[in-house]
């Protein structure tokens, strides 16, 4: 039996690091709107946790019944999970904030990570992990674009921006170490970056550094999904693809059979999956147990199509994992036809699972 907890504000809580973190209203609205999302893939005896402070009695029950009717959703919706001492706790991601919320439902400390383990997860969730993963994949013979650089001063950002321009890249991308869903990211050519100096300096002040990488001419976004057993082994499970706008902002994940997703993603370089498994196992394999995703990108450079094999590592459940598990459940139940595709997203208005023409 599993106890699922959708908590997308966990990413922002990692940046804060505190157990009593208060998320911004927008992030909290998405979390509240999507608390029942795990019902789309949960087993019948699994628990889907809604914090007591958000429990709305009959309204919560009616929302759960609606998901059951529309999508064959399953699971027991609860606001108290403390009696399930044998449950496998499955939050969206781990942080002191998430542990506090789960503790309020009665889940014992023994069922959750301790302070030292949470601090290791926070460190591994820093965007600098992409430097380590890319380096290890390069050692395995995987071709990749310039590896991201962590910098702590504005002049280093400007130097890298000019260097990438000389090498024929579109511009530069500057990222906060901890953020979520493409937030905390600015991009542009040298002129635009020069006009954003105050914003970039503020980013460095808030989190101590920024990650800098070339702005690639993307042609497609996708991700590979993995599971870590917490004992040193990270294994590939599936591919996923998602839609973004022209600025790279996330718009939803495709729900479909893996054969359909594979066709959308296209052929991967030989050895890519094995190289990713090896790099992830060496980096996070003993410090984290659960799902994770590695965002990747197809892009063009000097007339050739290439793949960036590690744009970002998401050390948590992802919407790609959610789409994969949802597709498997709906297809097994006959609710998803051969070749059919849907788009899964969560907004403050609720859970969206719309058909793609």
Mean pLDDT: 93
Q: Which structural class fits the helix and strand makeup?
A: alpha+beta
Rg computed from alpha carbons, rounded to a whole number of angstroms: 20 Å
As an assembly, this protein is single chain
How would you spell out the order of helices and strands?
Answer: EHHEHEEHHHEHEEHHEEEEHHEEHEE
How many helix segments? Answer: 12
**Percentage of residues assigned to helices:** 25-40%
What is the count of β-strands? 15
Main-sheet strand order equals 13-12-9-10-11-14-15
Q: Catalogue the unreliable spans.
A: none
Alpha-carbon distance between the termini? 36 Å
Give the DSSP E fraction (strand runs of 2 or more residues). Answer: 25-35%
Biggest sheet details: 7 strands, antiparallel
Broad shape: globular
Describe the structure in brief.
Helix content is 35%, strand content 27%. It is α+β, with helices and mostly antiparallel strands and 357 residues long. The strands form three sheets. The protein has a seven-stranded antiparallel sheet, with helices on both faces. It has a four-stranded parallel sheet with strand order 3-2-1-4, with helices on one face.
